[in-house]
Amino acid sequence: MVEPVQNETPQHAERFRAVHESMLEGLGELAAYFGFSKVLGQLYAALMLSPGPLSLDDLKDLLEISKPSVSTNMRTLEALGAVREVYVRGDRRKYYEAGADLWRVVQRILSSRELRDVERALHVLGENADQLRAGMPAMQESSRELAELYLERIDALQEFFRLAQFLLQVILSSDDAPDLGSMSPYAHLKPE
Q1: Can you give the residue range of the structural domain that contains 84?
Q2: Whole-number Å distance between alpha carbons of 50 and 40
Protein backbone atom coordinates (compact mmCIF):
# COMPACT_ATOMS: atom_id res chain seq x y z
CA MET A 1 0.00 0.00 0.00
CA VAL A 2 1.26 3.45 -0.81
CA GLU A 3 2.01 5.58 2.18
CA PRO A 4 0.32 8.98 2.11
CA VAL A 5 2.16 12.17 2.81
CA GLN A 6 3.44 12.21 6.39
CA ASN A 7 1.41 14.13 8.94
CA GLU A 8 -1.69 13.95 6.75
CA THR A 9 -5.11 13.75 8.37
CA PRO A 10 -6.71 10.29 8.48
CA GLN A 11 -9.43 11.54 6.11
CA HIS A 12 -6.90 12.67 3.50
CA ALA A 13 -4.77 9.56 4.02
CA GLU A 14 -7.83 7.42 3.27
CA ARG A 15 -8.55 9.51 0.18
CA PHE A 16 -5.00 8.84 -1.11
CA ARG A 17 -5.41 5.10 -0.45
CA ALA A 18 -8.78 5.01 -2.24
CA VAL A 19 -7.45 6.86 -5.29
CA HIS A 20 -4.34 4.68 -5.36
CA GLU A 21 -6.37 1.46 -5.23
CA SER A 22 -8.79 2.77 -7.85
CA MET A 23 -5.91 3.65 -10.21
CA LEU A 24 -4.31 0.22 -9.75
CA GLU A 25 -7.62 -1.49 -10.46
CA GLY A 26 -8.54 0.81 -13.34
CA LEU A 27 -5.25 0.52 -15.22
CA GLY A 28 -5.27 -3.23 -14.56
CA GLU A 29 -8.69 -3.52 -16.18
CA LEU A 30 -7.64 -1.27 -19.06
CA ALA A 31 -4.58 -3.44 -19.71
CA ALA A 32 -6.77 -6.56 -19.69
CA TYR A 33 -9.19 -4.90 -22.12
CA PHE A 34 -6.34 -4.38 -24.58
CA GLY A 35 -5.18 -7.98 -24.27
CA PHE A 36 -2.42 -7.59 -21.71
CA SER A 37 -2.44 -9.06 -18.23
CA LYS A 38 -4.21 -7.14 -15.49
CA VAL A 39 -1.01 -7.32 -13.42
CA LEU A 40 0.88 -5.49 -16.18
CA GLY A 41 -1.51 -2.54 -15.89
CA GLN A 42 -1.34 -2.59 -12.10
CA LEU A 43 2.46 -2.58 -12.15
CA TYR A 44 2.50 0.36 -14.52
CA ALA A 45 0.00 2.22 -12.32
CA ALA A 46 2.07 1.53 -9.20
CA LEU A 47 5.19 2.91 -10.84
CA MET A 48 3.37 5.85 -12.39
CA LEU A 49 1.97 6.89 -9.01
CA SER A 50 5.20 6.35 -7.10
CA PRO A 51 7.25 9.45 -6.29
CA GLY A 52 10.41 7.36 -6.61
CA PRO A 53 11.65 4.13 -8.20
CA LEU A 54 10.39 0.80 -6.87
CA SER A 55 12.18 -2.55 -6.69
CA LEU A 56 10.70 -5.85 -7.81
CA ASP A 57 10.28 -6.72 -4.12
CA ASP A 58 8.45 -3.42 -3.49
CA LEU A 59 6.09 -4.16 -6.38
CA LYS A 60 5.57 -7.76 -5.23
CA ASP A 61 4.63 -6.60 -1.75
CA LEU A 62 2.52 -3.69 -2.95
CA LEU A 63 0.38 -5.79 -5.28
CA GLU A 64 0.61 -8.98 -3.21
CA ILE A 65 1.64 -11.10 -6.19
CA SER A 66 4.46 -13.53 -6.90
CA LYS A 67 7.92 -12.30 -7.80
CA PRO A 68 7.96 -14.33 -11.06
CA SER A 69 4.73 -12.59 -12.10
CA VAL A 70 6.27 -9.21 -11.33
CA SER A 71 9.45 -10.09 -13.20
CA THR A 72 7.65 -11.41 -16.30
CA ASN A 73 5.33 -8.42 -16.55
CA MET A 74 8.16 -5.96 -15.94
CA ARG A 75 10.05 -7.43 -18.91
CA THR A 76 6.97 -6.81 -21.05
CA LEU A 77 6.67 -3.24 -19.76
CA GLU A 78 10.37 -2.68 -20.50
CA ALA A 79 9.97 -4.04 -24.04
CA LEU A 80 7.07 -1.62 -24.58
CA GLY A 81 9.18 1.24 -23.27
CA ALA A 82 6.65 1.88 -20.49
CA VAL A 83 9.20 1.47 -17.70
CA ARG A 84 12.94 1.68 -17.36
CA GLU A 85 15.43 0.23 -14.95
CA VAL A 86 17.16 2.81 -12.78
CA TYR A 87 20.18 2.64 -10.51
CA VAL A 88 19.68 3.27 -6.80
CA ARG A 89 22.94 4.06 -5.07
CA GLY A 90 23.95 1.52 -2.44
CA ASP A 91 21.37 -1.07 -3.48
CA ARG A 92 22.03 -4.02 -5.77
CA ARG A 93 18.37 -4.77 -6.45
CA LYS A 94 16.68 -3.80 -9.72
CA TYR A 95 14.62 -0.65 -9.48
CA TYR A 96 12.16 0.69 -12.02
CA GLU A 97 10.29 3.86 -12.78
CA ALA A 98 7.48 4.57 -15.22
CA GLY A 99 8.45 6.12 -18.52
CA ALA A 100 7.52 9.76 -18.72
CA ASP A 101 6.45 9.74 -22.38
CA LEU A 102 3.12 7.91 -22.45
CA TRP A 103 2.64 8.93 -26.11
CA ARG A 104 5.70 6.84 -27.11
CA VAL A 105 4.37 3.87 -25.12
CA VAL A 106 1.04 4.07 -26.96
CA GLN A 107 2.85 4.32 -30.29
CA ARG A 108 4.95 1.23 -29.51
CA ILE A 109 1.87 -0.77 -28.55
CA LEU A 110 -0.01 0.31 -31.66
CA SER A 111 2.91 -0.44 -33.96
CA SER A 112 3.73 -3.80 -32.41
CA ARG A 113 0.20 -5.20 -32.30
CA GLU A 114 -2.69 -3.23 -33.67
CA LEU A 115 -1.17 -2.15 -37.00
CA ARG A 116 0.06 -5.68 -37.62
CA ASP A 117 -3.43 -7.07 -36.83
CA VAL A 118 -5.13 -4.57 -39.16
CA GLU A 119 -2.71 -5.44 -41.96
CA ARG A 120 -3.33 -9.15 -41.37
CA ALA A 121 -7.11 -8.58 -41.55
CA LEU A 122 -6.73 -6.68 -44.84
CA HIS A 123 -4.64 -9.51 -46.25
CA VAL A 124 -7.20 -12.17 -45.27
CA LEU A 125 -10.09 -10.11 -46.63
CA GLY A 126 -8.24 -9.58 -49.91
CA GLU A 127 -7.51 -13.29 -50.27
CA ASN A 128 -11.15 -14.16 -49.58
CA ALA A 129 -12.40 -11.64 -52.14
CA ASP A 130 -9.96 -12.95 -54.75
CA GLN A 131 -11.06 -16.51 -54.06
CA LEU A 132 -14.73 -15.64 -54.55
CA ARG A 133 -14.09 -13.61 -57.71
CA ALA A 134 -12.05 -16.45 -59.23
CA GLY A 135 -14.83 -18.97 -58.62
CA MET A 136 -17.80 -16.82 -59.64
CA PRO A 137 -17.79 -17.58 -63.39
CA ALA A 138 -18.32 -21.30 -62.72
CA MET A 139 -20.98 -20.78 -60.02
CA GLN A 140 -24.69 -21.27 -60.46
CA GLU A 141 -26.85 -18.13 -60.35
CA SER A 142 -27.92 -18.47 -56.69
CA SER A 143 -24.33 -19.05 -55.58
CA ARG A 144 -23.13 -16.12 -57.68
CA GLU A 145 -25.71 -13.86 -55.98
CA LEU A 146 -24.51 -15.01 -52.56
CA ALA A 147 -20.89 -14.44 -53.64
CA GLU A 148 -21.80 -10.89 -54.70
CA LEU A 149 -23.35 -10.27 -51.27
CA TYR A 150 -20.18 -11.62 -49.62
CA LEU A 151 -18.05 -9.35 -51.81
CA GLU A 152 -20.13 -6.28 -50.86
CA ARG A 153 -19.68 -7.09 -47.18
CA ILE A 154 -15.96 -7.83 -47.61
CA ASP A 155 -15.52 -4.52 -49.45
CA ALA A 156 -17.21 -2.68 -46.56
CA LEU A 157 -14.89 -4.42 -44.07
CA GLN A 158 -11.87 -3.57 -46.20
CA GLU A 159 -12.88 0.11 -46.23
CA PHE A 160 -13.16 0.07 -42.45
CA PHE A 161 -9.77 -1.62 -41.98
CA ARG A 162 -8.12 0.76 -44.49
CA LEU A 163 -9.43 3.68 -42.43
CA ALA A 164 -8.11 2.04 -39.24
CA GLN A 165 -4.76 1.47 -40.96
CA PHE A 166 -4.62 5.10 -42.06
CA LEU A 167 -5.47 6.41 -38.58
CA LEU A 168 -2.88 4.14 -36.96
CA GLN A 169 -0.24 5.32 -39.42
CA VAL A 170 -1.08 8.96 -38.66
CA ILE A 171 -0.71 8.29 -34.93
CA LEU A 172 2.54 6.40 -35.44
CA SER A 173 4.05 9.11 -37.64
CA SER A 174 3.34 11.92 -35.17
CA ASP A 175 6.32 13.02 -33.11
CA ASP A 176 4.27 14.91 -30.57
CA ALA A 177 1.27 13.82 -28.58
CA PRO A 178 -1.89 15.71 -29.49
CA ASP A 179 -3.30 18.09 -26.89
CA LEU A 180 -6.21 15.85 -25.98
CA GLY A 181 -7.10 18.02 -23.00
CA SER A 182 -8.25 20.79 -25.31
CA MET A 183 -10.58 18.31 -27.05
CA SER A 184 -12.32 17.35 -23.84
CA PRO A 185 -15.92 18.43 -23.43
CA TYR A 186 -14.83 19.58 -19.95
CA ALA A 187 -11.85 21.67 -21.15
CA HIS A 188 -13.75 24.86 -20.37
CA LEU A 189 -13.96 23.78 -16.71
CA LYS A 190 -10.18 23.63 -16.20
CA PRO A 191 -8.69 26.45 -14.13
CA GLU A 192 -6.38 28.75 -16.09
Answers
A1: 10-99
A2: 16
